[in-house]
Structure formats: C-alpha cells, structure tokens
Amino acid sequence: MALMSTVPAFAAEQMLFVSQGGAYQKAQTIAILDPAAKKLGITINQDSVPDAWPIMRSQVATGKPTWDVVDVATNFCLRGGEQGIVEKLDFSKIPNAAAMPAEYRSDYSIAYEFYSSVMGYSLKKFPDAATAPKTWADFWDVKKFPGRRSLRNNPLATLEAALMADGVAPDKLYPLDVDRAFKKLEEIKPNITVWWTSGAQSAQLLNDGEVDMVMAWNGRISALVKEGAKVTYTYNQGILQSTSLCVLKGAPNLPTAIKFLNEAVDPVHQANLPMQIDYGPANPKAYDTGVIPAARVKELPSAPENAKAQALMSYAWWTSAAGEAAEKRWLAFAQK
Amino acid sequence: MSAIDPSLRYLRREQGLMLLLASPAVIVIVALVVLPVGWLMGQSFYDGGFTLEHYKRIFSEDIYWRSFLLTFRIAFTVTVLTLILGYPVAYAAAHAKRPWDMLILSFVILPFWTSVLVRAYAWLVLLQRTGVANQVLERFGLISDPLALVHNELGTVIATVHILLPFMVLPLYSTMQKIPRELMLAGASLGGGPLHTFLRVFLPLSLPGVVAGLTLVFVLTLGFYITPELLGGGRTIMISMVVSRNVELYNQWGAASAIGVVLLVCVLAIFMLVSRIIPLDKMLGQK
C-alpha cells in the first residue's frame, strides 16, 4: 500500500482517497486528484489497494473507518449501499453529476471512469480485417475461427458476452438469462485455454501467443498495441463498465469527501484523464470541453460513437439477488 | 518449616527465568496466532447468531468438497514426487565429500531463497505454448503441436514440486547425515550387497527424515495459493483459492472461516497421526 499526499500540504481540510494503484492511480493523480485538491484547497491523501471490497467492509465493521472516498467497480458501491457500508449520496451537493445519464449513478455511487471488456485478437492469427472475428458469435465459432481462447475468470461481462454470442441484442441483455448464458459458456469451455484472473495476465497471454483471442479490458490491449505487439481489439459488442466513487459509511471527513466527489466529475478534470491513460471519462460533458483531440475520442470506450456499439453493464442487476446467485454459480462452473 | 534444598531453589529460579525469557515469544504467538485463529473459529459459527450453516455448505455444495478433493490429490502427488526426486539428492549430499556436499545443498537452497512468485512465473515462461520446453521438443521433432504443460493441473504440480523440494531434501539430509557410516560397513561385512544393506540398514534409519519431509510438503501444499492461481489456468481451484474467492468476491467471511477451520483440523489430524509414528522432536531434527 502506497501512501501519497497531494498538494497543498498546509491545508486544513483533508481526506483519504483509495484507488487501485499502478499506472491508473498515477494517471488520475495527474488528471483529477491534484487539480481537484488545488481547486478546493484541500489535501488528498492516497492509498491503493487492488481488492478494496473486503477492506471496505472491515473498515466500517471496526466503527472507525479511516478511508473517505473509494474508487472501485460500481457493483461494490451498490452492494456496499445495500449492506450499510457506503453513505447515501446527496446529489444536490454534486451539481456536476447533473449532466451524467441516470444509469451512470445511483444513491450510493457516481461513475468515475469507463473501461470496456472487449474482444482482442492476434493479428498474426487473423491478419486480414475482412475475415477477422468481429462479434462474440465469432469468438464462439471455433470452426470458422480456429484458435485458442481466454476469458476472464469472473462472471461479470462474461455472461453478457455469452448471451450476445447466443444472439441477444446488446440493449436487451437485462435481466440476464443466466441459464442460457451458462449453457452457451459450456459450449466454448473446452476451447478456453486459460480463465484469466488479472488484467496483466490477459495481456501477457495474448502477447506471448498463448492464446489467439481474448476478452480483455481495452486499456490492456491498447497498451500492447503501443508496445508494437501484433494484436488489436474491437469495441463492437464490448461491455462498457465503470468504476465509481463511493464514500464509506461514517467517513471521517464526509463534507470534504462530498466536495471532492463533485470536483472529481468536473468535465475538465474528467477530460484530462484520457490524456493520461486509455480510460474514458464518465461525464459525457468532458467530450464537449475540447480538451480531448478528435483522434483520441475515437479510441475511448465511453465516446458516444463507441458507446453506441457496446452494451452498458447493469450493475443494479449484478447486485440484485439474481446477480449474486449468478456470481456464486461461477466457481462451480469454472471448476467442473 | 524445613529448609528447602538449595539446589531445588536454584532450579525453581531458573525455571522462572526461562518463563520470563519466553514471555515475549508467548505474547507474540498469542497475539498473532491464537487470537486470530480463535476469531476465525468464532466467525465460522456466527451469522447473526450461532449457526452451522457455513459448515453445512462445505458438505452440501459441490465446489467445496471438489476443491478439498483436488487439493488433497495434488498434495499427495506433489509429496510422492518430491520424495522420489529428493531422496537421491539428499543421499548424494549426505555421502559426498567436501566441498561437493555443500555444492549439492546450495543447489537446493538457492532456489529456496527465491520468491515463490518469481519461480511460478519462471515456470510459466518455460512451460507455456511458446515456451522453452515446447520449443525444444518441437526442434527435435518429438512433437508437432505444442503440449499443454501449463494452465492446468500438470503445470501446478510441476511448479509446486519445484518450490517444495527443499522441504523434502533438508530434513532427509539432516537425518541421513546422522546415520553412522560404520553400520553400512558392518552390513557389507556381514555379506549384504549394496542394495541389500541399503534396504535393510540405511532406508529404515532414514525413515524419520522421510516422514518429516512427507509431512512438511503435504501440509504446505494444502495451503498453496499463488502457484495454482498462476499456473492452474483458472480450472485448478485449490481450497485456498475458494477461501479467497469467498472473501473477495462473495464477501462471505463465515464460509471462508469455516473452510479455514476444516483445513486446520485436517492439518492437525495429520500431525497427530504422524507424531504417533515418529515423535515430533525427532521429526524436527533433534536426536
């Protein structure tokens, strides 16, 4: 865990922000955290934890949480809200969120940045764009597209992909037909070489030629492309996902945390993020600021053109009883 | 009142001193082992009130006992393999003259000092489709398609054997070293051939080391996490991975604790069974 402090150090108000570390946290420090701290005149202390969810729970369970704002996959904010781990948000104090679509926020969360689970593939294996795989149905079609495949060892987005492969339209996915999805997954299972568990692993599998096709996060594959690897990906039928910001129940610096939340989705700060890393802004107004060059917009998962081609993940469904049951079914599926 | 024997008084004072000296260690063990394990056990019986729900789940849901089964199977395989590979190495080290014995031991110990994560990744690089092993086999025309050496149970076993080999070799070596050479000579002078003396004299005397090694490797494999996570391809779900999924994904600390308790009970049972055959102090290398 790295503790970093963001300017200005002398400010009276401070808060603790927790994110996932690595290149991502560095990028948001430059794009969002530092400018927000400066504008608000507060000190933002940082911590990073790859799996914040179990710690969020134990923080609140102790009765004296030290964390204020957490940046996690949206479903954890929603589940935290249900379980009394996350504060209910007062959106009248977060005016910047007004420009965001309703499905980008909930009582407990506010979308912070977007990434996408996309289909990536090897250009060595499929060099010709005309005959390359384009849909999840293609990913499932082992006769037309022979090769080794890898999916994430997690039901989120994987079930969505399976249903799209089975012919469900991207905007008709929810509520997910879980039985149908698992049935479709059984079909592809013998051809899955690896069920990956970390983003780094998914990139490595594709880069080393261990697999020819993979469902991976767009940023992981675009990083490989930048390094000159012969790989590419498509946003077509991608599953658009977000991390959200939420505030721990009983956060020691609640008012400061809410002030920060509003600043974090400020269109200009949001527009700065994709200049640092391959993630899309959560506030659509960021695309109107003129900060992001047109060529860059095309590469971002949340850009209007790209978003249209994709399915938007429903975190509300995943935190429902049906969603949690589907999650539990996953381990049994992976093991058999 | 009768006078106390001065030597007895001295002994008592020494015992008191020993207790005082041991107290920091005792405090640390209580704080870092006894209390957390107690908390873990409490969690496993608690879900808003006393419940056996978490234990019921282990026996009723497929994934749990399947993972237990797989974990024990892998532990068994790994233990047998490390014995087969480790025994000759320990034998050679125990019988070699200086500096050769040190050289053999350093080959065992150097990898032991390398991070488990690094070794697991190294095996990934060696064994994957485009890895060294497959490329060599292809170059010699032994295979036409790369073998699936990793991202499955095989890869997990290979790496685990490598990582745990020192835990087999070191107790074997320490036992073998203490076997008097004269006994072998005596066996030979009584007409036993090399194989005969080995089987009748050396092997039985090395058994405490064997049992120590077997126990250590078996128990350590039961708790393996990183290796199956990295080399198992997502299909080799060992019990520690089920624990972590329960905490990370499902937020079911009770279920995770129950699995932990069951595993702990298994390990203690193994130790008790083994200590019936060979006392623990003997196993841990004292005379």
Layout of secondary structure:
The complex is a heterodimer of chains A (336) and B (287).
Chain A: E1 4-6, E2 14-19, H1 22-40, E3 43-48, H2 52-61, E4 69-73, H3 74-82, E5 110-122, H4 136-140, E6 149-152, H5 158-165, H6 178-188, E7 192-196, H7 199-207, E8 213-217, H8 218-226, E9 231-247, H9 254-264, H10 267-272, E10 280-281, H11 294-297, H12 304-308, E11 311-312, H13 315-318, H14 321-335
Parallel strand pairs in A: 2-3, 2-4, 6-7, 6-8, 9-11
Antiparallel strand pairs in A: 1-3, 4-9, 5-8, 5-9, 5-10
Chain B: H1 6-44, H2 53-60, H3 62-95, H4 100-112, H5 116-127, H6 132-139, H7 153-177, H8 181-189, H9 194-222, H10 226-231, H11 239-248, H12 253-277, H13 280-283
Describe the protein in words.
Chain A: Keywords: Periplasm, Signal. Chain A: This is ABC transporter substrate-binding protein. The complex is a heterodimer of chains A (336) and B (287). With 336 residues, chain A is of the alpha/beta class. Chain A folds into two domains: 14-114 and 242-312, Periplasmic binding protein-like II (D-Maltodextrin-Binding Protein, domain 2, 3-Layer(aba) Sandwich), CATH 3.40.190; 117-240 and 314-335, Periplasmic binding protein-like II (D-Maltodextrin-Binding Protein, domain 2, 3-Layer(aba) Sandwich). Chain A has helices at 22-40, 52-61, 74-82, 136-140, 158-165, 178-188, 199-207, 218-226, 254-264, 267-272, 294-297, 304-308, 315-318, 321-335, and strands at 4-6, 14-19, 43-48, 69-73, 110-122, 149-152, 192-196, 213-217, 231-247, 280-281, 311-312. In chain A, α1 links the parallel β2 (14-19) and β3. In chain A, α1 (22-40) packs across α9 and α5 packs across α6. Chain B is built from 13 helices and no strands. The longest helix of chain B has 39 residues, at 6-44. Chain B has 287 residues and is mainly α. The interface between A and B is medium-sized, with 26 and 23 residues.
